[in-house]
Amino acid sequence: MIKQLSVFLENSKGRLSQMTRVLSEADVDLFALTIADTTNFGILRTIVSDDEKAAKVLKEHGYTVRLNDVIVVAVPDHPGGLSHVLDVLTDSDISIEYLYSFVNKPHESALIVFKVDDVEKAMNSLNEKNVPLLSRADLMR
Amino acid sequence: MIWNEACECMSRQDMEDLQSERLRKLVAYSYDNVTYYRKKMDEAGVKPEDIKSISDLSRLPFTVKDDLRDNYPYDAFAVPMRDIVRIHASSGTTGKPTVVGYTKADLETWAEVMARTFSAAGVREDSIVQVAYGYGLFTGGLGAHYGAEKLGASVIPISGGNTQKQIMLLQDFGSDAIACTPSYALYLAEVLGEMGIDPRKDLKLKYGIFGAEPWSHEMRAQIEEKLGIRATDIYGLSEIIGPGVATECELQDGLHIMEDHFLPEIINPETGEVLKEGQKGELVFTTLTKEGIPLIRYRTRDVTSLRYDKCGCGRTLVRMEKVMGRSDDMLIIRGVNVFPTQVESVLANMAEIEPHYLLVVDRKNNMDTLEIWVEMSEELFSDEVKKIEEVRQKIKDNIQSLLGLTADIKLVEPKTIERSMGKAKRVEDKRKL
Predict the structure, then answer these.
(1) DSSP conformation letters of B169-233
(2) Which one of B380, B383, B385 would you mutate to disrupt binding with A, by most A Cβ within 10 Å of its Cβ?
(3) Do A64 and B389 touch (CB under 8 A)?
């Protein structure tokens, strides 16, 4: 289980760069990043080196943030790799709210972030099927 | 044409005598039949017998919209419900509407003043009048309807909206007059243009009877030019009677107030002091003949001035300038009265929402638009778009059901909305009126 940091962003020029500047000044490293956007606003979702610190400095700068649990799965980089993981979740009756992928050098596999309705259950199911789950320490290596 | 010369062209002296006589009766009637008036007058130390003529008017206490709200729904009525034959309502400041009740005689008065209004606007017995004001609790539709019928015109009660059908009837039924909001008239003109219909050639339209929202002289010029009609500004508010309180004549130089029924004053909104002819201030009305819900010195919050000189049209009825603004923060959006506090009450009832909001009103393609900015809060924020959209939709639905208006809800970052010292800025009105 890994904490993901979400930040509310208005759809306006320069908002993203201002936000990333706040994080870089606090010496926070970004591992994964995605933005869900609507015509009205955007939600930036990120996994960072120090979520508590990141949340604190962003709040100090007036951002609305939220921390929540996600799971990060290493998916073997071959056809059917993702499909297998999804099957495990489906069989365990777990709904995926959203997912996004990212790359992380020390790993051969594709890394995928899952937001699911039941994190504990999803982790148990994936463990049983030997799907590797990553911790923050794994990402920082 | 002047519908009722006896009333509309009276000498000043006769008018003042008539008003004084009616005022004496009204004050005694209200004191005897409406509890809150009796209380107000007792508190102010005024007795009905102290009011001998209209020069004593300023001794009477004011009535405000809150008085009607406090007496919601029927306690401001002066007659038992068996004598009330119609109920209308307009939006109030905090969610509860302002309720007005009419007796048979009140409906007669209303039809009479609206017949005068249509007549002043150019409508005749052989006219075909398309009433495109909304029918319902809003006074616009039915008020116009009975006035045009009393005048003897043929009335098409199509109600508001449904632009394609409006245009079809304009073409096929040969309507020569239309009653609607001025912004809707301009919108109609636009759509007609897009459809390649030339109002001057393809329609019989000659007269427009426009009210229920403030509009400028420039907007009038535009409407008249685009539709090839004479556009008449009419004024009214449901508390007083609905449309029919005042109307322009063919000279379009101020609105004649039906002062034999509705006695106007202009006051300084801060001090309550009565202002002189020509001075700008808040318009106050006393309903000289109303039975259902008589109002004494009712503060309209509309800002204007009065002039008593005789008009070139022959009417002697006092004229008010086009309304130039409000002495409170009420907005009129697509003909609907909107108070920022109503929006606040919707937001305050939703736990997730910060009470920081801004109403942005604009006019796009001649239609008023309302955008409500709401600041994002930690309670409302989610990492899932779906959940945020749900809250946005809920705000929109709640606004819609309270105001009857569709608003665009824009979620903004915290601290985006300007915090001012003292009174918060809740409204940005970008409309060029």
Answers:
(1) HHHHT---EEEE-HHHHHHHHHHHHHTT--HHHH----EEEE-SS---HHHHHHHHHHHTSEEEE
(2) B383
(3) no
Per-residue pLDDT of chain B (433 residues; tens, 9 = 90+): 999 999 999 999 999 999 999 999 999 999 999 999 999 999 999 999 999 999 999 999 999 998 998 999 999 999 999 999 999 998 655 567 899 999 999 999 999 999 999 999 999 999 999 999 999 999 999 999 999 999 999 999 999 989 999 999 999 999 999 999 988 898 899 899 999 999 999 999 999 999 988 788 878 988 999 999 999 999 999 999 999 999 999 999 999 999 999 999 999 999 999 999 999 999 999 999 999 999 999 999 999 999 999 999 999 999 999 987 788 878 888 888 888 878 877 887 776 676 678 999 998 877 889 999 988 888 889 999 999 999 899 999 999 988 888 999 999 888 788 765 545 578 888 887 6
Give pLDDT < 70 ranges for chain A.
105-108, 141
- Name the residue of chain B whose CA is nearest to A5's CA: B383
Residues A62 and A77 in one domain: no
CATH of the domain at B264: 3.40.50.12780
Q: Which of B385, B392, B412 has the CB atom closest to A36's CB atom?
A: B385
Chain B contact present for A115, CB below 8 A: yes
CB contact under 8 A, A8 and B376: yes
Decide if B373 touches A, using CB distance below 8 A: no
What residue has token string 């307009």?
B90
Q: Which DSSP category does B47 fall into?
A: -
Task: Please indicate, yes or no, whether residues B141 and B13 belong to a single structural domain of this protein.
Answer: yes
List the domain range (segments joined by +) for residue B376: 333-429
- Which residues constitute the domain of residue A26? 2-68
Claim to verify: residue B240 and residue B362 sit in the same structural domain: no
- Identify the domain boundary among B328, B354, B376: B328
- The structural domain count of chain A equals 2
Identify the pLDDT of residue B271. 95
**For residue A90, what is the domain's CATH number?**
3.30.2130.10
Task: Residue window 25-44, chain A: list those with CB within 8 Å of chain B.
Answer: 36, 38, 40-41, 43
Report yes or no: A66 at the B interface, CB cutoff 8 Å. yes
Residues B278 and B303 in one domain: yes
Query: Long-range CB contacts (< 8 A, 24+ apart) of A31-37?
Result: A31/A102, A31/A104, A31/A139, A32/A72, A32/A100, A32/A102, A32/A104, A32/A111, A32/A113, A33/A102, A34/A100, A34/A102, A34/A113, A35/A9, A36/A98, A36/B385, A37/A11
**CATH number assigned to the domain comprising residue B409:** 3.30.300.30
Q: Is B52 in the same domain as B164? A: yes
**CA A51: distance to chain centroid?**
11
Looking at this predicted complex, what is its ipTM? 0.84
Task: Find the closest chain A residue to B373 by CA distance.
Answer: A40
Chain B nearest C-alpha distance from A92 (Å)? 22
A88 and A41 in one domain? no
Do the Cβ atoms of A63 and B413 come within 8 Å? yes
Give the minimum alpha-carbon distance from A74 to chain B in angstroms, rounded to a whole number: 22
Half-sphere exposure of B7 (CA within 13 A, CB side): 15
| B380, closest residue in chain A (CA to CA) | A64
Contact A38 B412 (CB under 8 A): no
DSSP state of B274: B
